[in-house]
Amino acid sequence: MNNRQIMSLLDKDTRNKNFEEVALGFNLSQVHIEASRCLDCKDPRCVKACPVNINIPKFIKEILDKDYEKAYQTIYEDNILPSVCGRVCPQENQCEGSCILGIKYQPVAIGALERFLGDYSLKNDCCIDEHIVDNHDKVCVVGSGPAGLSFAASIRRLGYTTHVYEALHDFGGVLRYGIPEFRLPKSVVDKEIHRLESLNIEFFKNVIVGKTLTIKQLQEEYKYKAIFIASGAGLPNSLNIKGENLNGVYYANEFLTRVNLMKAYDFPNHPTPVKVGDNVCVVGGGNVAMDAARVAKRLGSKNVFILYRRNMDALPARKEEIHHAIEEGIEFKLLLNPVEIYGENYQVNSIKAQVMRLGEKDQSGRQKPMPTDDFITIDIDSCIIAIGQSPNPIIKNHTENLITDQKGRITVKDCETSIPGVFAGGDIVTGAATVIEAMGAGKCAAQQVDDYIKNTFH
Ligand code: FAD
Ligand code: SF4
């Protein structure tokens, strides 16, 4: 059995000073060695573990036959964003986590193979001639993140006239404004979204549903037979401590949006700089915290550290992202919980944190952080808060009878909300999750919407 192939990375001391992509992908020889490791299982567990159920053994066999275009088409049937997912999916918990080879050896690098095929198709402009028979029923999508895009493609393939409304001035949701360029180049996002336009899906930007147009208007005036809400979880959670409103304190979403969407790293070519200073504290231990820390480093900060209330083993971020952050010089200050942010002349200058110890295990199975009597104060120039996101309440606040739970997530049954004909999926339903889970929700909702329209109107 060949060893699992290792993807080349940009040198750590070079990459932490620029925004170029870190992981360089497999070369053709690696692709074939890796594909040859697949056992072509009779009952492939990887397929079940993939939230959009890509036929993994089939596309791997097509790679071995050197029919890359066909292999790409096999993926594209179930996943319209293979170049994106090949890069950002936490495969270790999904397809690769279930690969039978992982029991004795290392699992097949399914994500890297998917990325290869996605990139191959973009580079070679592989075009998929999908024969769609229009049924002239109109549906719309609120939000152009992975859930909205996946829904739009699936419902359009069933013949529906499909319109996507997006609040921002560009499409892709977190793929566009959250995940940094060095993990997911925006040219890849552009090309994969552009391909959807060839399905005749229409996109409308700068439309905030709930403000520019209400759900009621979409139903009654615009006559959409069904609406799919995929507005994500873009509202940052706050620490609720003193000093959080000082200058130099950012929420990770705002910080990453300024850098990714507004291209703050390319000042003065883009007129929205973001000032971080030499010493940056990032509060939180998830993927968003790792992204924010690595971006701050690339913006030129000398000392960037993660402040986290548990220990290294409990960090919720992907192991790979933690590893890359350490390589790039990010420091970890652990078992510390922020209690106050200090400043002078409205500008942050230090953060006070309580020293924690680990207690009994909590519901998450991790040891609970317990406060001690000790505190430390650390000098900083800026602070980025990355402790999770919640759904934005705009739609809920402007839509009568739309039921949400205590956390503001839309309540659904078989993807349908409390309002007939209005469906929802992705982070707005589950809370912050993953790209491919959001895409799975979009795909599933398309089937439910099709059933609903056929049963209600035909
Ligand atoms: P979103 O991607 O949030 O898209 C929602 C869209 O709806 C946005 O474009 C928003 O502008 C729009 N919208 C909101 N309100 C309205 C409105 N009222 N009217 C019109 N449009 C509206 N997951 C991974 O799998 N791998 C990763 O590596 C990863 N890294 C991440 C890094 C960061 C910094 C963040 C924040 C998240 C990351 N995630 C990652 C999580 C993943 O991106 C999300 O789970 C996924 O994007 C959710 O998809 P969605 O379509 O539900 O929502
Ligand atoms: Fe191949 Fe692993 Fe899937 Fe089996 S589980 S088909 S070995 S990728």
Automatic annotation (TrEMBL):
Pfam families: Fer4_20, Pyr_redox_2. It comes from the Bacteria. The keyword Thylakoid does not apply. The keyword Zinc does not apply. Its EC number is 1.4.1.13. This is NADPH-dependent glutamate synthase. The gene is gltA. InterPro entries: 4Fe4S_Fe-S-bd (IPR017896), DPD_II (IPR028261), FAD/NAD-bd_sf (IPR036188), FAD/NAD-binding_dom (IPR023753), Helical_ferredxn (IPR009051), SudA-like (IPR006004). Residues 29-62 form the 4Fe-4S ferredoxin-type domain. Gene3D superfamilies: Alpha-helical ferredoxin (1.10.1060.10), FAD/NAD(P)-binding domain (3.50.50.60). It comes from Hujiaoplasma nucleasis. One of its GO terms (molecular function) is iron-sulfur cluster binding. Keywords: Oxidoreductase. SUPFAM superfamilies: alpha-helical ferredoxin, Nucleotide-binding domain.
